[in-house]
Amino acid sequence: MTKALGMKLEDMTMLFQEGLQSMRMNNYPPCPQPKLVMGLRPHSDAAGLTVVLQGNEVEGLQIKKAGAWVPVVPLPNAFIVNVGDILEIVTNGIYKSVEHRATVNLHSERLSIATFFSPKLDGDMGPAPSLITPRKSGNFQKN
């Protein structure tokens, strides 16, 4: 990722090397009125990266693309990798955080397992210095 962006490796490792990892397991049971229920409200992840396994390959994850909700079709033995808010900041907006949601369905239970990779708690948050140039200023302010 750093190579593709022309970023210094240190800019990423300094932030994530001693970072946090957390996991969330979701169970969405069948719902008699799926049009009236949202499995997980629209949101983006605060983490740097989120890796998702759609456990039983039941459709329900959707991403927002060009203002419309698009289903992410489950593939056997495949992981989904979402860019989170922190990575959007570090990459100075080059990679965008993914807005997504989960829906329920009438007939099938849906299982998902998400692992979140976040920076260390005392990290200096802002665009990577190697991505700030005279031509490209920072889209985010350091905090």
Automatic annotation (TrEMBL):
<keyword id="KW-0408">Iron</keyword>
<dbReference type="InterPro" id="IPR005123">
    <property type="entry name" value="Oxoglu/Fe-dep_dioxygenase_dom"/>
</dbReference>
<keyword id="KW-0479">Metal-binding</keyword>
<protein>
    <submittedName>
        <fullName>DH200=94 genomic scaffold, scaffold_210</fullName>
    </submittedName>
</protein>
<dbReference type="InterPro" id="IPR050295">
    <property type="entry name" value="Plant_2OG-oxidoreductases"/>
</dbReference>
<dbReference type="InterPro" id="IPR044861">
    <property type="entry name" value="IPNS-like_FE2OG_OXY"/>
</dbReference>
<feature type="domain" description="Fe2OG dioxygenase">
    <location>
        <begin position="19"/>
        <end position="119"/>
    </location>
</feature>
<dbReference type="InterPro" id="IPR027443">
    <property type="entry name" value="IPNS-like_sf"/>
</dbReference>
<dbReference type="GO" id="GO:0046872">
    <property type="term" value="F:metal ion binding"/>
</dbReference>
<dbReference type="Pfam" id="PF03171">
    <property type="entry name" value="2OG-FeII_Oxy"/>
</dbReference>
